[in-house]
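Assess this today:

___
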Amino acid sequence: MADPTPWLRGKLGDFFTISREKGEEDLPMLSVTMRNGLVRRDSIDRKMDSELEDGDHLRVRPGDIAYNMMRMWQGASGLATGDGIVSPAYVVVRPKKTVDPLFASYWFKSERMIYLFWAYSYGLTNDRLRLYGKDFTQIPVELPSLPEQQWIAEIISDFDRAIDITDALVGLKQSGKRALMQQVFAATADLAASVPSGWTRMRCDKLAKIVGGSTPDTAKPEHWGGDIPWCTPTDITGLSSRYITSTARSLTQSGVSACSTTILPAGSIVLCSRASVGESAINTVPMCTNQGFQSLVPNEPGDLLFLYYMLRACQRRLIRFSAGSTFLEFPGHELAKMQVAVPGPNMREKIGRVFATLDDEIDLLRAQATALRDQRRGAMKKLLAGDVTEQCQIIEEAAT
């Protein structure tokens, strides 16, 4: 690309017109969302009833941008890719010939523009701020020439496509894993299902030791802040992988002794038995838990992954035999006697590794999606702030 030309200066009213074109019959109703921009209203969970006729709505044409007056300073705007109608409470802006619509849709979500939308909105508190069309047109801005706008939009679009593809791959991998788990662990999740050939039923306590947790006196500081991780359900529900290495709070040895809790060896399964019933993780370091757990210490190390995925597959069953008026909970003896279907030791280890490999692939794709989103944010910050020359090579390399 050639060296960028000087940026154009003016007010938004120099580059956009406010459209009050009336809607027409049979056009789809569109809504502005924070995450996905302008979408068909019937594709989202929003109340559809309205006393307004189609002609009372505003028409949007391809290339128009509609925004929510009360949320524009939070990024609530979207580009129209087809004809439709929107609520008259929205503002519809139509780019002039010097503005690329796709570029504008990205530009409106940049840090600088979000700040300006906030600054030009009126209201006593944030929840009452409104950016009216007349105030939108008065916002002073700088933007690149049309060819540079189109180039910038293409770069950011490349990131969006790569992110969408990666997210789709994550979804496909997750769906495939769920289907395989339902098939492999069907006889454990549903006792009415037939046991596969070569498999047998046995109690959970024949495969692992069931270990409960406890909490020392919270009023005694000498029990807390040591080097022994102490797991609570909150530590589990916030995890992004199947492993847990650290916890929000920790115990001293005196804290462990005071409540007679057990330190689980690394390679155990910490299983929530209260509130978030069935949520679980594999601890990579020795740790103990509070009383909201019934954890499993496998009798054979090779069973670890199999047991972890088996328990994930039969979470609904754990919930069904839980009880409680304040919150659901199942006791250790119920888990101990729970009948499960298992193959021989070698097959258990192979099955566990298959699912672990699938999770590794999913984790890798998620990491790639996160990296792409970080690169996209950096690209937007640089490109939409005018620092085009410095970033051309970096952004093009990242997009490929």
